[in-house]
Amino acid sequence: xxxxxxxxxxxxxxxxxxxxxxxxxxxxxxxxxxxxxxxxxxxxxxxxxxxxxxxxxxxxxxxxxxxxxxxxxxxxxxxxxxxxxxxxxxxxxxxxxxxxxxxxxxxxxxxxxxxxxxxxxxxxxxxxxxxxxxxxxxxxxxxxxxxxxxxxxxxxxxxxxxxxxxxxxxxxxxxxxxxxxxxxxxxxxxxxxxxxxxxxxxxxxxxxxxxxxxxxxxxxxxxxxxxxxxxxxxxxxxxxxxxxxxxxxxxxxxxxxxxxxxxxxxxxxxxxxxxxxxxxxxxxxxxxxxxxxxxxxxxxxxxxxxxxxxxxxxxxxxxxxxxxxxxxxxxxxxxxxxxxxxxxxxxxxxxxxxxxxxxxxxxxxxxxxxxxxxxxxxxxxxxxxxxxxxxxxxxxxxxxxxxxxxxxxxxxxxxxxxxxxxxxxxxxxxxxxxxxxxxxxxxxxxxxxxxxxxxxxxxxxxxxxxxxxxxxxxxxxxxxxxxxxxxxxxxxxxxxxxxxxxxxxxxxxxxxxxxxxxxxxxxxxxxxxxxxxxxxx
Length: 537
Prior knowledge:
By secondary structure, the protein is an alpha/beta fold. The protein folds into 4 domains: 70-138, 3-methyladenine DNA Glycosylase II, Chain A, domain 3; 173-215 and 322-377, Beta Barrel (Elongation Factor Tu (Ef-tu), domain 3); 220-316, CATH 1.20.990.10; 393-536, Nucleotide-binding domain of ferredoxin-NADP reductase (FNR) module (Rossmann fold), CATH 3.40.50.80. The chain is 37% helix and 16% strand. It has helices at 16-30, 70-76, 82-89, 102-111, 124-138, 220-230, 248-254, 263-272, 276-288, 296-303, 310-315, 331-334, 357-365, 403-414, 430-433, 437-446, 466-472, 474-482, 493-512, 516-528, and strands at 32-34, 40-42, 173-182, 192-198, 211-215, 237-239, 245-247, 323-326, 337-343, 346-349, 352-355, 371-377, 393-396, 421-427, 451-456, 486-491, 532-536. The strands form 5 sheets. The protein has a 6-stranded antiparallel beta sheet, with helices on one face. A 5-stranded parallel beta sheet has the order 15-14-13-16-17, with helices on both faces. The chain has a two-stranded antiparallel ribbon with strand order 1-2. α6 (220-230) packs across α7 (248-254). It is globular.
């Protein structure tokens, strides 16, 4: 859309890109536009565009492809404005774990409205480092926006009974734990929990497909080991990464990320460590990155007899971000509760037990009746049950990826939806790892779950996964797609979801008699129609 005239004076405090956007917006708002051939077009008095009004094409983001490495994504964004370069640095999953989408998170950082650059958990260290590099190159051009629209999941999800508080990422609700029940049977190598949380009196509402944000706390033993390594008083008052004043122990427990050491911490310790070997190791970690599972305490142990104050130490830590979990319940079935499916993460490295901060909190460190801070993160991209109850639904969710589909099935049962439902579930051993077996079996018997196909990878000589079960049922799956079925995937983006995507494309091309390009076009259409939706991380 080309504005007929400039509505924004040259002296206005906007750059060229902002002035062009505002001129276009105001031109459209006043109903005055100019078509390509120069003929003026005037919008209808009701505010609707006329038939010959040109519509601005949607911006193309060639780097928005989660299969591309970050080097290729940054090359595709070369020469673009800062917010687009920042977007290219993201993991491109639109997973919502940051409370934004990739585009809106990058725009919030570029505007200065979002200061936390460590929210893209799938992108990890390489994303965070690239963001910092881009911001350093941009210098003073990063300015806070004046419109206040940089919100990371601050949508209001409910209010206290007296209307005094609205709950959001920035104002979480203190909810009590009802239960944390093991789902795996004795003999399993895993510890997966069904977690139920009380929302009575909160006013919080959620839809199936939404996620619950949980603010975790760090393990007290780890916090005390860090205090001992710093050789300081655990009760000394410090400023947290969020700007609050607490004791050092409280700050480490509640506000600081102790998992991923920052480059700032490594750089500080290099200059404070008298040992030449320690300096060399720290410099190597700076250059090559820290190994998987290498945490803040590991860095302090490498640094040895370094001398840093508690305040200096905290200034080099990232904030402890909330963890997002797919909601495993429908409010139509459970009322004022919210359920999660959480895989407890515990492993040993270098003779020390390492713990997933949120998963072990939910499994071990919060007792029934004790509280945690939570908020609802609305689903994105249409990841929810079909709007029409008669529409068929295919769900692929191995392991903890089953969570949202437990909610989907509960929702369809409560709505007495007539549409067929097909679930593919997989894990290691049927005897130990068939999560929600009794509930799913009941849904099969009642007819709510039309088909249930399982793949237990370690029960036979040959490993079988959910994508293998899809291929075994290719003709039936293709028939469901031809009936307009929606296809959903939840779980690991790098391996499972990629394998499922390849299997789905293969089924479409083979059963539909299409070329690979035609199959990809079919999948693209399904995606644009929100019939192929993924919640991957």
